UniProtKB/TrEMBL annotation:
Organism: Pseudomonas triclosanedens
Cross-referenced InterPro entries: FliE
Localization per record: Bacterial flagellum basal body
Location (main, coarse): other
Database matches in Pfam families: FliE (PF02049)
Protein name: Flagellar hook-basal body complex protein FliE
Length: 111
């Protein structure tokens, strides 16, 4: 077998491996991996918000991938979905920063 054919065979094997990895369910949104029992209180609310933002990020990624691969021609919809994911992530970061600041203030309070 010539070196060119060997290189082509190696590249074909790698492409098949990547196709198997891309088609598999190794990476899933956090909303699909839940334990089933909802947690109440502030922790449950924050976890629910975190899972919602994660689901938005995955929707955005799949919409952009569909446009990039040519499976969809809805560029405007993909961009809107991307902006929704960006805004929800920014809002989550703001909430996290406010909670962290409040926690720091509580820690510094004199007894």
């Amino acid at each position: 077998m010539s070196s060119i054919m060997r290189a082509q065979q190696d590249m074909l094997e790698r492409m098949n491996q990547y196709a198997e990895l891309a088609g598999g369910s190794a990476i899933q949104p956090a909303a699909q991996l839940g334990s089933g029992a909802p947690v109440s209180g502030i922790a449950g609310s924050f976890e629910q918000a975190l899972r919602s933002v994660d689901a938005e990020q995955h929707k955005s990624s799949s919409a952009m991938a569909a446009v990039d691969s040519g499976k969809s021609d809805d560029l405007v919809g993909a961009m809107i979905q991307s902006q929704k994911a960006s805004v929800s992530f920014s809002a989550l970061l703001q909430v996290r920063n406010k909670l962290t600041g409040a926690f720091d203030e509580i820690i510094r309070m004199p007894l």
